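User: Hi! Is it possible to get a structure for several chains at once, not just one? Here's what I have:
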Amino acid sequence: MNRTALRPLARILEARSRGENPDAIERENLRIRHEQMRDRARTRAEGRLLVLGIMFFCAFSVIGVRMGTLSASVASEPRAQATGASIIAQRADIVDRRGRILATNMETHSLYAHPQQMVEPVRAAKALAGIFPDLNEERLIKDFSGKRKFVWVKKKISPEQQQAVHDIGEPGLLFGPREMRLYPNGSIASHVLGGAAFGREGVHSAEVVGTAGVEKYFDEQLRDPAREGAPLELSIDLTVQAAMERVLYGGMKLMNAKGAAAVLLDVHTGEVVSIASLPDFDPNDRPRPPTEGNPSDSPLFNRALQGVYELGSTFKIFATAQAMELGLVNPDTMIDTRGPLRWGKHSIRDFHNYGKSLSVTKIIVKSSNIGTARIAQMIGAERQKQFLGSLGFFEPTALEMVEAKGGKPLLPPQWSELSTMTISYGHGLSATPLHLAAGYAAIANGGFQVTPTLLKQSGPKYGPRVMRPEVADRSRMMLRKVVTEGTASFGEVRGYAVGGKTGTADKPKERGGGYYKDKVIATFASMFPAHDPKYVLVVTLDEPSENSGPKPRRTAGWTAVPVAAEMIGRIAPLLGMAPELEPGKVAGITLTAN
Amino acid sequence: MTEMVYGAVPVRDGEPVLPKWWRTVDRWSMSCILMLFGMGILLGLAASPPLAAKNGFDPFHYVQRQALFGGLALTAMFLTSMMAPQLVRRLAVLGFLGAFVALALLPVLGTDFGKGAVRWYSLGFASVQPSEFLKPGFVVVAAWMMAASQEINGPPGRLWSFVLTVTIVLMLAMQPDFGQACLVLFGWGVMYFVAGAPMVLLVGMAGLVVLAGTFAYNNSEHFARRIDGFLNPDIDPTTQMGYATNAIREGGFFGVGVGEGQVKWSLPDAHTDFIIAVAAEEYGLVLVLCIIALYATVVVRSMVRLMRERDPFIRLAGTGLACMFGVQAMINMGVAVRLLPAKGMTLPFVSYGGSSLIAGGIAVGMLLAFTRTRPQGEIGDILRGRLR
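Assistant: Yes, the chains can be modeled jointly so their relative placement is included. Here is the combined structure:
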């Protein structure tokens, strides 16, 4: 931009020579510049005002058009706008391994009120309190006659209740369509399923979200419209699950236990065929989480998956299996079992005195702590850690339930030689019954690591090899002998050749400081048939006490084993296994001709 | 000689005031305003009886009051529109100072009428909302400052006006009254735009607004819920929006008939914020389009007339007043048709409300005063050969 100087020297000199006031020239130039500025501002403002005017015109036109489209659309009750399709089958069903329904949806209605539309609020409140005894009549009267414009009365009502509310004839009581989650089998597999609740909620539809279990773990998948409602197929078998829960409940009551858990695992696929924890609950009416007391006493607590316990002598088989794998011992190697075995200020004792020495097989059969500890000493801490880690004892199980993360095993802070010895017979390392089942499955399937899963599998799924097949084979022989001639003699089920190991662990006190003398966790980890196992069953009883004798008996052999035997007798036929004769020679069977 | 003998004859400004006013005022806009006021009374007849019944007055209590305040408002409008821009400016600055002080004293002397925000002075027979009166005064003062800054060696008026704006916006936000605060901010923005805001700054500010909006959405649950509720195609029938939308649908093109509407019984703000819904239900789309056309005429005509205005102060002040008027109407109607998120804002001249009516009358009077036909120095342009 070329600006004229306010005081151009040539003109000023000229004016001076003519005797004129040069300031006039400056003022003149100032005026011209001012006018130019104003003109510029004006032209710019003209353009911008035009833009503004057009913008306003357009905005008013948009509002007018919008008004027009709104007016042209059909007037309808807003709550009728939501189409039925959007809330039907919004959450996929959950089925068991044979396609039987575990969780499905049911159409129902919610009940809400518009108090300002009510004719007789007090009468309506009284009638409602009559239909729904859990509603507080005074509260309803207060809500209906106050200033509130909207009141939720009930989230889910049955058709009969809906008809009864209709019959009140109150125009201010309205129904909203709802889809609720229904668990037709009640409390069966309650911990697996978890439960569902309403999430975000409007008048004409509500979101159903999983609150626990597989419902929560697979929440997005179940709600994914792209899956078109394809049901979620679990590995659970409903009949087996029902039988297991029934037997377990009976066993828990007979053995005076306060809780119980059981896991049935397919050793080849890792499928959890049934998993139970007692006490349980009804997922249709899931209780609130307890606010006080020990959360592990709540029915919501899944002992099989979240409960980490010292599982006692059931661990011994891992020590002997590893020792055989490393070539340190064979089943007939004699191990020194003189007791008590002193280690620093600790001493390790056996339940009975087993004499000077026992063979490795006998150590398992008789469940000798001292013998196992000696074997663990031969293995050493590092190798023991590595082996237990490969069986999955250091991490929470990867089961497809949100609760699985809660079952993180408790490991000794420092894996000393003493820890090595105590862990070999199941003290000092706490794990869940499901961990134990996965560990036993590795022995049962010939030495492959197993990852438990809740999803139906199409074929065997083996993890990496953790022991040689011969070692697994010999370990199974030992476990079989535990039943035929050892601590688990009540575990014999004719035709199913049960093998397994008992474990009775004193319960640690909650506040530390040692163990209870009269509270135990009794566990029986079994596999059947022992010569070619298909399933692993772990039964755990919390604080059992068998009181038929003069003294209460708490060992697993008297408590968990009979329960497991009854369970196997019931569920093996359900699993399609026919009773069969055990091949090979087993001590104790004598064929006699009459 | 005559003058020396008889004393000076008082010099009259050529024409008498009234004829000159009639000749120069924007009669189209003025007619539109009068029609809007008439519609306000008409709709008040429909919309306010439920409220009167609730508060225990005669059915048309609020209509009478509306007529009374409307009379005052129209008088104020006529008087203001007859003034010269200079006089308007002087009075507006004085009025602005008064309203500003009143606004500042609100936390001490004001009442909230149980609505949670301290915005009113209770005078017994009526209540006054100072922020309504502040708006036109503010526009004039800000325009004056900006116009002054365009003079050579003028004061830094844009900065001053910006500081003033921020102060007022903060004061309004404290009440809290975000609607008015936004309106004030918008008025200033429009004036700044017309006064020649640099393009870079405008683009930058637009970006900043988007950023701030995103930030607020992510961090304020209240804000996010409002926006989500707005974006959600499902209308909750229990909200005011649900009722308003339904009322517009019920009305259709020609309405359900005078006095037959239902929405006024369920909407607590039927006579103020949602009066357009009442209009749509009872009189149909026809009346609504009329109302929109009236507002659009006032705003667009004022803009066009201001385009020819040579005085920067008049141009800016006129722009600010016209835009505030238009935007207030636009927001009110935009909310009712769900183009904008819910925000309480009255429909100028149509909604019930004493303060807003009188203040609106003054504001429109000022606008009419500024848009009067004046010699714009076209001769000078012709002489310089710059007539476009």
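Residues 83-372 of chain B form one domain. The longest helix of chain B spans residues 275-307.

User: Great, thank you!
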